[in-house]
């Protein structure tokens, strides 16, 4: 029997949120304009592409995008695609306090539950940057899978929590940091690994890219 290879497609509808929380364009009307393009034309073009090839994907939609582009997000939902969590304004979880992380997760979880008629099952951390509290927070909200870590490149695995490692402090003796990483405990949270080499964004984000930045911005800003 031939071996089956399963592939999945994910779209991050960063749109304006990406420029607010991660790309440094929060003070630029031009960058915000690019986000508006992504949330309208970009989403619609991706929907047409998936429909052409009869593909169902998972769309990770920040709360900001959900509220800013309700018509386009409804088109995603009504086309039968899954919708997952992706922060509110594409905030970096590692820069946030535990309270801030919990507030964002609580709001966006409620938003998606109401919008989709069922709670979200999956999550992607903005910028694929997770925090030390991230796994426990997702588990507390019943999240079943994550797509933010890179322990593997294409095989799913159980996500661990409480890994610990020693940072280098050059003001101290070398013996203080020459210690191995200590692995934590496996959880029931499935990790669908993230890999920059399998993501179109790493290539297309460069202005020196062979791709034309404006013509592909609908894809760039809507994926990360």
TrEMBL record:
Any one GO molecular-function label of the UniProt entry: hydrolase activity, acting on carbon-nitrogen (but not peptide) bonds
Domain NodB homology: 29-224
GO biological process, one term: carbohydrate metabolic process
Signal sequence segment: none
Domain of life from the UniProt record: Eukaryota
Protein name stated in the entry: NodB homology domain-containing protein
């Amino acid at each position: 029997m031939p071996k089956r290879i399963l592939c999945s497609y994910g779209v991050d509808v960063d749109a304006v949120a990406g420029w607010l929380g991660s790309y440094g364009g929060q003070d630029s009307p031009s960058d915000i304009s690019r986000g508006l393009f992504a949330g309208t034309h970009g989403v619609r073009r991706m929907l047409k592409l998936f429909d052409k090839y009869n593909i169902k994907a998972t769309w990770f939609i920040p709360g900001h995008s959900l509220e800013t582009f309700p018509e386009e997000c409804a088109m995603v939902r009504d086309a039968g695609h899954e919708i997952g969590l992706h922060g509110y304004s594409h905030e970096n979880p590692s820069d946030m306090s535990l309270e801030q992380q919990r507030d964002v997760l609580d709001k966006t979880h409620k938003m998606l539950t109401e919008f989709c008629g069922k709670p979200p099952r999956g999550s992607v951390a903005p910028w694929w940057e997770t925090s030390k509290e991230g796994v426990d927070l997702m588990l507390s909200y019943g999240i079943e899978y994550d797509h933010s870590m890179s322990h593997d490149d294409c095989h799913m695995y159980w996500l661990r929590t409480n890994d610990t490692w020693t940072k280098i402090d050059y003001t101290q003796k070398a013996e203080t940091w020459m210690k191995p990483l200590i692995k934590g405990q496996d959880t029931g949270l499935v990790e669908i690994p993230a890999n920059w080499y399998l993501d179109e964004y790493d290539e297309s984000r460069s202005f020196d890219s062979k791709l034309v930045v404006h013509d592909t911005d609908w894809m760039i800003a809507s994926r990360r």
